[in-house]
Design the sequence.
């Protein structure tokens, strides 16, 4: 059970010198930094962090694994409903200040972004009145009903349903047996607007929370380069980039994804925006297989693969994967073409990703210039104290 209404928490004592990153407000404590734990915390419990001289440092959720504590307060405060309500209000007011709640053309955005909003382990996306929660830590999962209640209190009529979709994101060793479910309301609306484009969202069975909200501004940029062009959207999921390209007047758009349901949803999204006769075709096939068989040459290509590296141990293979897929695309693109290429792997740094694309360009023997360097949008804020939260990296390349 969480101890959120008690003033006395289990104390985690750090080894000498291991407090330096915490004094610089980094929100993770690794297991190797811990000298002693005074008590026997269960996963998800609230714990206090102290340095080797027993000076208070922070408060966070305890968890089993390499990251042993995720910090949500660097002040010694009471952790109760008021604390969490203020956390949620601050994140919501930030987005209100940026205009996300007042935009008639966009009603889908990220409401809570983990460390970027001071709530490590918690993701909430907003879909035109439905909030979809994903907990990535046991501590946040145990708070899900409280968070749902407080969200409704704060947003009132702007929230009609809250869906918890944490079953696939929680540590399996926690033995919580989570089940995706509605904490408020039901599935009554699955259509959203993004920059005036309409999308059908399946947050119950789709990937992530149902839509890749973080690519909103990159999709808008693709539109700027797509008029009259042949466009190929690889790892296209439900066709976000494809819809933007068609809206901009692309002469042909091909969408490629290994998932047949994703391509079916892409076709639906194309149809609700442009009817049944749009210049679009979807291919439910592996990206490498597609490149092996296609004879089409494209003016604009988008590569937005899933995370090739979810942790550091997979980094080497991931970098090879990025190099291979980018080389395939560079071999397929027309001279004067534009390549949008992305990595959403937190374990892959911006420099490492760029080096992989550099190697792919050299192997493909194409001269390449960087037009834009992209990151996640403002509703996915990056804490300056937590560089790992800058997970999305993108390059827009001019290929001679």
Sequence:
């Amino acid at each position: 059970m969480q101890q959120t209404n008690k003033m006395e928490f289990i104390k985690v004592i750090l080894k000498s010198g291991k407090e330096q990153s915490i004094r610089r407000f980094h929100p993770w404590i690794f297991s190797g930094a811990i000298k002693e734990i005074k008590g026997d915390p269960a996963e998800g419990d609230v714990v206090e962090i102290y340095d080797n001289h027993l000076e208070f440092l922070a408060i966070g959720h305890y968890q089993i694994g390499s990251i042993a504590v995720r910090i949500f307060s660097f002040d010694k405060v009471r952790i109760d409903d008021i604390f969490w309500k203020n956390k949620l209000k601050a994140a919501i007011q930030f987005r209100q200040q940026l205009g996300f709640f007042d935009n008639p053309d966009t009603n889908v955005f990220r409401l809570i972004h983990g460390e970027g909003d001071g709530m490590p382990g918690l993701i909430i996306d907003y879909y035109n009145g439905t909030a979809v929660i994903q907990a990535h830590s046991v501590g946040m999962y145990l708070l899900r009903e409280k968070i749902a209640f407080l969200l409704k209190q704060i947003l009132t009529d702007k929230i009609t349903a809250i869906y918890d979709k944490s079953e696939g994101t929680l540590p399996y060793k926690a033995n919580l047996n989570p089940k995706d479910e509605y904490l408020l309301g039901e599935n009554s609306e699955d259509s959203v607007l993004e920059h005036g484009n309409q999308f059908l969202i399946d947050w119950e069975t789709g990937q992530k929370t149902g839509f890749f909200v973080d690519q909103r501004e990159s999709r808008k940029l693709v539109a700027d380069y797509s008029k009259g062009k042949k466009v190929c959207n690889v790892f296209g999921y439900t066709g976000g980039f494809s819809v933007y390209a068609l809206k901009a007047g692309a002469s042909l758009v091909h969408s490629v994804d290994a998932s047949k349901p994703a391509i079916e949803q892409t076709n639906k999204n194309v149809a609700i925006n442009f009817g049944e006769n749009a210049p679009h075709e979807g291919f439910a096939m592996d990206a490498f297989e597609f490149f092996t068989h296609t004879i089409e040459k494209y003016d604009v290509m988008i590569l937005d693969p899933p995370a090739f590296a979810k942790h550091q141990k997979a980094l080497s293979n991931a970098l090879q994967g990025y190099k291979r897929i980018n080389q395939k695309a560079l071999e397929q693109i027309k001279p004067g073409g534009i390549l949008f290429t992305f990595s959403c792997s937190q374990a892959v740094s911006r420099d490492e990703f760029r080096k992989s694309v550099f190697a792919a360009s050299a192997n493909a023997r194409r001269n390449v210039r960087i037009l834009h360097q992209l990151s996640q949008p403002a509703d996915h804020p990056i804490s300056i104290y937590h560089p790992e939260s800058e997970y999305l990296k993108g390059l827009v390349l001019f290929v001679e």
Notes: The chain has three domains: 10-73, 81-191, 212-399. Confidence is low (pLDDT under 50) at residues 1-6. The two ends are 60 Å apart (CA to CA).
